[in-house]
Design brief:
The protein has helices at 2-11, 13-30, 37-60, 65-75, 77-89. It is mainly alpha-helical. It has one domain (2-89). It is globular and about 45 Å long.
């Protein structure tokens, strides 16, 4: 089951990266008009994700501290799930 989830997420990684960047852009555009909730929501979720999962995955797979923080804060699970999949199952 774990391999199936990893494979599913990595299959759509490019689309997910695009959608995450669109969400960040929408948040950046809305924030100056009094709607910072998108950006604050993303930051809150990704901070929680970094503390609970991201830091462990980055360290386990040899990523630097700053690389891990940056990628988790920008992309969240869209970064660490494929990293895990590639390292555990050796597939891209």
């Amino acid at each position: 089951m774990k391999k199936l989830v990893f494979k599913y997420v990595t299959k759509f990684q490019n689309l997910q990266v695009f959608l995450v960047l669109v969400l960040w852009a929408l948040g950046a555009l809305a924030a100056p008009f009094g709607f910072p909730w998108i950006v604050l929501g993303i930051l809150a979720l990704h901070t929680f994700e970094y503390v609970t999962v991201g830091a462990k995955k980055g360290k386990k797979y040899g990523e630097s501290f700053w690389q891990t923080v940056t990628m988790v804060m920008i992309f969240g699970y869209v970064w660490w799930v494929p990293l895990t999949y590639r390292n555990e199952y050796g597939e891209d």
